[in-house]
Amino acid sequence: MTQRLHYGMKAQMGKCTTSRVHREDSKVDPLEMLRFCATIHPVWARVMARHPRARVLAFADDGFVRASLAECLHILAELKVAFKEDTKLDICLPKCKIYINGLTLADAREEVHQIVEADPALFGLKDIITTNDDPAKNVVQVDGMVCVGVPIGSPEFVQAFVAEKSKAMVEDVKKLQLLTDPGVHFKLVSYCHNTRLSHLSRTLPPTTMANPACGIQTVDYAVVNEVLAKGTDNRSALWGRAAMNWYRMTAQLPHHEGGMGLTPQRASGIAAFYSASSTFVGWLAQRPHRLQWLRQGELDDPGTWLTGPLLELTHTHKTLLQDYKCVEAAPAANAGVADADNGAQRAASPLSLPPLNLLHKQHQLSEEEIGAGCVLPLQRRVTGQIMSHWGPHATAKAEPPSARCQHLRMLHRTHTCIATSSTDDGEPGHSILQHDMPDQEDPDCPEAKKRRLKHAGAAHMSCLAHEPVKKEEWEAWFCQFLGEPIPALEKLARARSVCACGRHIIDAYGDHVHACKQHTGSRKAAHETILDAIEAICRKAGITTERRNIPSVQKRRNKRGRGDLVLKNVNLGGHRHLVLDVAVNHEFGGDNLADVSRNGALRDAQPARILENTARTKVARYRAGYAAIRHAFLPCVLSTSGRLHGEFLRLLYIIAHRRTTRWFQRHSNDEPSEDAFKFRRGQYFWHTRAAIGQAAARAVAQRVHVAEHTLRRHRVPSNVQDDLAYPATVH
Ligand SMILES: [Zn+2]
Predict the structure, then answer these.
(1) Which of 55, 184, 343, 676 gets the most CB atoms within 10 Å of its CB?
(2) For a pLDDT cut of 70, what percent of the chain falls above it?
(3) Number of other CB atoms surrounding residue 23 within 10 Å
């Protein structure tokens, strides 16, 4: 008999299962599970020492043994006694699985029966032959078994397992429809649902997962469809093929590419398998007993790899090189080129993968090998590389449903500003914060090498900080993000409702409402939302703010005006107090009367110019006046697409820096290591931008709210005598 046999084990302890030990105690202490593993390890070790030919893997209450059938049964019997005597743990025999391949079920059961009957040492195992009404619950299996959530067995068994999981997920994601808060809905889909396959993806090869019968694609579609349906009030069901492809891509692209970050599992799964398998090779190479696990071949010679997972790794490596344009590092060939320090250059160059024969020595690479790019890249970088060459997106990109969509993609991509701008006063890009930036640079540093601050308008979607979101507000923001008609405005646009200004009809995209000065109520609410957010982040950094009694200053034409918010005692921009003034720009035209074709079109091919112009107008209006009363003035300009003006972004960075300093001071650590400080500051800067991003999204939704009573009524023609003919006008 040569068949290989496996069994999975669930240990149970009296009334309290070890699974409960995990669930309850691990909430108290994450190390509890490791403590449990350390406790049972000697029991496993003692039993296995008597069976040197068998292999076992165990974690927590799950164990996996690979051996001949007779040996397997002996190990099980011995473990049962050992666990009972040493730790008072019961192995629950009916929950064990014995997988025997190459036999029919009847033969396999007979085989087990004979071995157990013939050996008195195995009498304790008699129960395992009992049959169950549900065949999947029988101990003896011939198709496969599931160990630690991973199916092992025939391709059909594995496929059926994944297909069942996919089907359940597609059904589950639909159940989330009943959530009334669309923000919570998005986060549940994104964090809890779109990640459910990760464990399987790391373990099962991409060739298996890509099989249409497994249904991974249906999961990817279901996830995106739910999000699109929720955000558009189900209008997504009416889209044509090109529009659907495009918006699906928008949902799937990462934030820095202007997407919502719902990475398709089919793409991230390839990176997951590659990373997990490559890391495993490196890990196995460091184990003293590796040859007992890898019975054929050498880890440092991929030509000798014969086992399934290693062959799949070879195949995935080739796919990454051929289909996803990664390059294989060649330590000898480009040893000199590698130390190029230019970030932009490095980002543009294709992702370098270590050659397969260097995976086993990742922990001891030489300087040259590291320099040549032989270090295993982070999994997310592999995912990024796959996504940038993702086939379905290439198709979608070829057919944009509208010019607006294309413009929005450009607007939503990560944009940057130079952290410390030394441009002269009066020149574009001048910064009053240049002497306040925490990391001073060499003033002669060439422009291309200067440090830059980055911002992606959509990144706030991944922020877990949450305030309740109303359905209408979510839809208004979501549809503007996509470039689709806003459901609430669509009705008005269809009825050709006239704006309060009496000069324009309300359009469904919100362009006129954003541009028109008449919607003061909505505009004020939006303004307050952003101010609230700025105040909240200031408070976290220990900065006192003042929203009332802001000193007014002389503007032009003898008018007086004031900013929105004072940051007290901040010593920024050359003065003790800093006055902020918030402005929101819209990047599309909406109130052009002379040339109506400009309505709905992008106002400037360089969106940064729109923000800069508004900022300069504000500066011209207020800065000198405030300087006269010894206050600094800073405009905080943002756009409806979520872009931030450079000075605003710099201010947020300074606030994040101060919050970090305060955190370390509060924890009595005045001299944190540079790494610790930068790590925390990075986190705070991210959260600060996300908080502003969330507020901006809400403000953008609030701004397009049109109160019914502000609309102009259709005038009744004067020659009509009978009002009843126009019931709509009778009140
Ligand atoms: Zn108007």
Answers:
(1) 55
(2) 91
(3) 10
CATH number of the domain located at residue range(s) 5-153 in this protein: 3.30.70
The two three-digit tokens of residue 158, written as one number: 């594995």
SS3 labels along 189-219:
HHHHHCCCCHHHHHHCCHHHHCCHHHCHHHH
Ligand 1 mean position, distance from CA 637 (Å): 22
Among 278, 277, 393, 245, smallest CA distance to 324 is for 393
Structure tokens at 583: 């402005």
Whole-number Å distance between alpha carbons of 376 and 499 = 59
462 pLDDT exceeds 50? yes
Assigned token pair, 290: 């590796």
Q: What angle do CA 659, 663, 668 make, to 5 degrees?
A: 145
Residue 522 CA to ligand 1 center (angstroms) comes to 13
Distance from the alpha carbon of residue 703 to the mean position of ligand 1, in angstroms:
13
* pTM value > 0.70: yes
User: What does the block give as tokens for 512?
Assistant: 């006129």
Tens-digit pLDDT profile for residues 186-230: 999 999 888 889 999 999 999 999 999 999 999 999 999 999 999
Ligand 1 centre and the CA of 524: distance in Å?
A: 16
Q: SS3 of 326, please? A: coil
Please identify which residue in the block is written with the tokens 């040996």. 71
Residue 147, strand partner residues: 150
- CA of 595 from ligand 1 middle (Å) equals 16
Pairing of β 545-546 and β 565-567: antiparallel
Q: What are phi and psi of 637, to 5 degrees?
A: -105, 130
What letter does residue 89 receive in the DSSP assignment? P
Q: Where in the chain is the domain with CATH 3.30.70?
A: 5-153
The alpha carbon of 336 and the centre of ligand 1 are apart by a number of angstroms equal to 62
